[in-house]
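Subject: design request, 96 residues
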């Protein structure tokens, strides 16, 4: 086995892999710290959309937008994060 075959068999991390790991770990740690330090008891999660604007004066697409930004804000954000993770996972699987 010569030198070039030896390096093909090893899966060595590059500098970019290490930097990416450090950046992702630090972002994750800062998010966890922020979540744990936040007082969740004083937060009003949603406001009723019918208090914002009368339902008669808006179209269906506007009603959907109002509901997503008020009544369903937290589920909408959680689903968007899950879809982002699935997209990144699909890209990682496709590259292999």
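Subject: RE: design request

Done. Sequence follows.
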């Amino acid at each position: 086995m010569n030198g070039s075959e030896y390096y093909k068999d090893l899966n060595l991390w590059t500098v970019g892999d290490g930097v990416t790991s450090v950046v992702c770990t630090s972002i994750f740690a800062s998010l966890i710290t922020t979540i744990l330090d936040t007082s969740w008891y004083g937060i009003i999660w949603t406001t009723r959309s019918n208090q914002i604007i009368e339902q008669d004066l808006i179209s269906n697409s506007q009603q959907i937008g109002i509901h997503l930004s008020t009544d369903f804000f937290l589920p909408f954000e959680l689903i968007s994060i899950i879809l982002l993770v699935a997209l990144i996972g699909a890209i990682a699987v496709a590259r292999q």
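Residues 16 and 52 are 48 Å apart (CA to CA).
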